[in-house]
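Dissemination and training. As part of the outreach component of the grant, students in the summer workshop were shown how a complex can be specified as a set of sequence lines and then modelled as a single object. The example used during the hands-on session is reproduced here so that future cohorts can follow it. Participants entered these lines:
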Amino acid sequence: MIVTVTLNAALDVTYDTPDVDWAGVNRVRHVHRRAGGKGVNVARVLAALGQDVVATGLAGGLTGRAIRDDLDAAGLAHGFTDVAAESRTTLAVSDGDRTALFNEPGPPVTADELRNFAKSYEKAVEGAAAVVISGSLPLGVPSDYYAVLAGIAARLGVPALVDADGEPLRHAPGGRPAIVKPNHEELARAVPGGTPAEGAQALRAEGAGAVVVSMGADGLLAVTPEGDFQARMPYAVRGNPTGAGDALVAGLALGLVEADGWPERLRRAAALGAAAVAAPVAGDFDRAVFADVHPKISVSTHP
Amino acid sequence: MIVTVTLNAALDVTYDTPDVDWAGVNRVRHVHRRAGGKGVNVARVLAALGQDVVATGLAGGLTGRAIRDDLDAAGLAHGFTDVAAESRTTLAVSDGDRTALFNEPGPPVTADELRNFAKSYEKAVEGAAAVVISGSLPLGVPSDYYAVLAGIAARLGVPALVDADGEPLRHAPGGRPAIVKPNHEELARAVPGGTPAEGAQALRAEGAGAVVVSMGADGLLAVTPEGDFQARMPYAVRGNPTGAGDALVAGLALGLVEADGWPERLRRAAALGAAAVAAPVAGDFDRAVFADVHPKISVSTHP
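and obtained this result:
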């Protein structure tokens, strides 16, 4: 069982509106609603890969109920802790050419609610093979909370993977997570100056077991106890990059539970990321693209 | 008791986002959610005027529940009939300068659901002083349904006011409503060619007791059994015209239950419309603007 954590779960809504008038009235042709947030996307990919997975985190209000209902409809196991405030909606308005994204602020979380979550998190992690902790923190959650969660997992002997940005990323190594996964821009913000390899090394020095840096079409860089590796893509896949990082994280989580060596872990993770770009919706991936790109990804030790 | 009918009730959501990037990611600063739809706005204004009012119509899904929850929070009596599909959301995205409106399609309504509504409508109308029927029809509701509803009210001796557009407006007079209230553009679409007075006369000839045409800053034209009247505004009020027509309709409904003569009915309705323009949210009106503009509105018999 892999546990994913999404503290700022969302209802992802997409409006399909041809010829948007940005200063007038638009009739929406199609509305898509889907449970989202990075950890939920990771759980979808892991479930599609046949893994036993449960999506956890915080959810509140009628939007929280819509999130749970959608996961039920998708047959995805979940165990979200209730918060009183309304979970956020993210809206994508697409006119075919351009897409505008609107991210609502997350629900404010009380200390009591966070204690409730910590209790059920510890229970879930006790029996788990790995934990994936992803995404932004809602208001009221301390910025070192991912380090706290990774620390609980470390104490229980369960490897944790943290995919975060900003302060939560900066603090994450303190919880001794098995893997920290920033993209190269997030890494540059967290450890300014120096190369990606130096930034990753710095996060390892602070407690991260391994650091995997996603570099978009340039592949992956991994700084690990077994050495440094670079995965290079054979070609660029066109499509929607939203959710590519989550598919990549799902691949890394799979590597944690299946105990592959780093080269194969990285090859699979990079292939899933590319296959997610080819799929229109975050949390999905294109199996044909995965099958084609996977064997063509080269992994070298990094100079 | 005044009954309002909103077959296509909505959750009106407003996003306040400074400097919108229409091709990128936007952080929403404030989210406002409020039960809406024209009849709901009418009910809000009537309640604010101290009237005993109940908002009815169709509502479904979690969005329907959010609509009911918001009415509960506002202390507004309601009795919506449940539909299986999801009620619509309308979204206004404002960057301060421009506002883009996105109207989701309404829920498809089944014949059974419409029969359930008709039953509870007839029960509500039996004890009512007036009925206000407003707004668009969701999918599955026949275009002459407002005539059917007005006809039920007429049979029970309860005056009905219909505020509609397109085919529903075209058919409305067949139900012998006390008042039909198009704006001048809606009237011109329903009865092409001729003056507003001629268009209104045509709808009266087809069965409407009176026709009140709203002309924006130009005031109101009323074609009634007591003659034709024109209400003229003393000055233009700046602000948000959304909901002005609903406040105007609330004023006309009040005239139906308080049995004022047409000049005072029109003066109050036009003043409420202007006072709603001065309020930022549909369903509200500015009492100071109402008090100032009301005595200054001139009503003349139309040449």
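Residues 193 and 199 of chain A are 8 Å apart (CA to CA). Students were then asked to discuss how this feature might be tested experimentally.
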